[in-house]
Amino acid sequence: MLRIECPCCGPRDHDEFRYGGDASVARPANDDPDPDAWYRYVYVRKNPAGPHREFWQHVVGCRQWLAVERDTRTHAIASVSFARKSST
Ligand SMILES: [Zn+2]
Hints:
It contains one helix and six strands, in the order βββαβββ. The chain is mainly beta and 88 residues long. The longest helix has 9 residues, at 35-43. It is globular and about 40 Å long. A hairpin with a 3-residue loop joins β1 and β2 (10-13). The two termini are 28 Å apart. It binds zinc ion. One of its GO terms (molecular function) is sarcosine oxidase activity. This is Sarcosine oxidase subunit delta.
């Protein structure tokens, strides 16, 4: 069972959370006319074997969005922070 240390609520089982996607993807500017930039933002994702930054929302608890660095091979979590404080 994957356990995530919520900064507000403490350690909780992962089924209290909802996966929110890759936290390393940067959104293009709203007025960016490049269709390739929008294509990459919407559809192109890496599938790393190793450390990966992800968004998770604590839907059953405080409802905060978190940025979690998780190793996809072992599910070991290296860090958890509020998503609004992380910039990538
Ligand atoms: Zn929480």
